[in-house]
Amino acid sequence: MEAALQKLISVVENNTAALNSLASKGQEEKATPASQTTATSLYGVGGLWGVGVERDIISAHVTPRGILSALPRIPTLSEDPTYGIVTGYTDVDGDYLTGANVCDDAPSAYMKSCRLMARFGLQRFDSKTIDALEVIRKVNRGDFTDLVLRGRVLGMPDYSPSGLDESKILNIYAMSEMVNTAIQQERQLSQAVWQGAVNVQSAVSCGFPGLDAQIATGQVDADTNQACPAADSDVKDFNYNDVCGTGLDIVEYISMVHTYLTWNAESMRLDPMELVIAMRPQLFRELTACWPCSYLTNRCSDSAGTQVAVINDKVNVDMTREMRSGNFLWVNGEKVPVIQDTGIYEATNITDGNLEAGQYASSIYFVPLTITGGFPVTTLEYLDYTQAAQETAFLRDMQEFWWTDNGFYSWALEFAKWCFKFSLRDEPRVVLRAPHLAGKIDNVMYQPLQHTRDPYPDSPYYYDGGVSVRGSSTRYAVWG
Question: What are the residue ranges spanned by the domains of the chain?
Answer without folding.
Answer: 2-71+120-206+381-430, 232-379+431-446
